Amino acid sequence: MAKQVKLIARPRTESGRNAVKTVRARGAVPAVIYGARTTPSNLEVTRRDIEVILSHSVGENILVDLEIQDGSKVTNQLTLIQEVQHHPIRRQILHVDFHAVSMTDKINAEISLEAFGESDGVKNFGGLLEQNMRSLSISCLPQNLPEIIKVDISALKVGDSLHVRDIVLPEGVEVNDDAELTVFIVAEPKVAEATPATTSAAKGPEVIKEKKVEAAAPKK
C-alpha cells in the first residue's frame, strides 16, 4: 500500500510571478490544495521536506497528511499528491498540487505496472517481452492505494499475452481500464533478414576468370 507521510504547509498570501520567486528564494515551494469538499487555497512547503518525500517514494501516488499551520491555528487534511512540476533542465521542484481526499471516499489514480519473474518464452526460446501498458487506472479507498502493481510474467510462452483481466489486484482495488486490453506479450524472436551484401559474403567472393587469348593461325 502507498505510504502515508506527514508534511507541514503554511498559507501563501503572495501571488504573481515575483511573489513566487520570493517564496522559492526562502527555500520553499509554492503549492495549492483543492478537492470536492475543500476550497482551493495557496500554500507553501519547505523544499527540503518535499524533496525527501519524493525521493523515498516507489511510485508517483503519495498520500500526505498535510498539517497546515496558520499562526496558532493548525488543521490537518489527508491529501494525494496530484502533480509535481519540475524545471525542465535543472529538475528542481517548481510547484506541487495536493488533492484533498477522505478516508471514506474512493479515489481514482494511475498506478505504474512492473513485470517480475522471467518469461519462459524469453528465457528458453529467445522471445521478446513487449509491454503495451505502463500504468493501470484504478479506484479504491485511500488506505488501499498501492504504490505500484507488480505483474508475474514467468508463465508467458512465445506468442502468449497477458491482459488487464489477468492482473491480480490488491485487496480493495478495482480497475477502471478495459479488461481486454493487452498489457504484456511475448513476441517471436526476430530473425535478421539477409541483405545482398551478406548474401554475397556468404557465397564467397566472385572469381573473374580471364579469357584465354587464342593464338593466331600461322600465315600460309
**Judging from the principal axes of the Cα atoms, what is the shape?**
elongated
CATH superfamily of the largest domain: Ribosomal Protein L25, Chain P
Instruction: Just give the CATH class of the largest domain.
Output: Mainly Beta
Q: Tell me the span between the first and last alpha carbons.
A: 110 Å
Instruction: Calculate Rg over CA atoms.
Output: 31 Å
Keyphrases for this structure?
220 residues; mainly beta; Ribosomal Protein L25, Chain P; RNA Polymerase Alpha Subunit, Chain A, domain 2; 2 domains; 6-stranded mixed barrel; 4-stranded mixed sheet; 4 helices; elongated
Overall description:
15% of the residues lie in helices and 41% in strands. With 220 residues, it is mostly beta strands. It has 2 domains: 4-101, Beta Barrel (Ribosomal Protein L25, Chain P); 108-191, Ribosomal protein L25, C-terminal domain (RNA Polymerase Alpha Subunit, Chain A, domain 2, Beta Complex). The strands form 3 sheets. A 6-stranded mixed beta barrel has the order 1-3-2-6-5-4. It has a 4-stranded mixed beta sheet with strand order 10-7-9-12, with no helix packed on it. The model has no long low-confidence stretch (mean pLDDT 87).
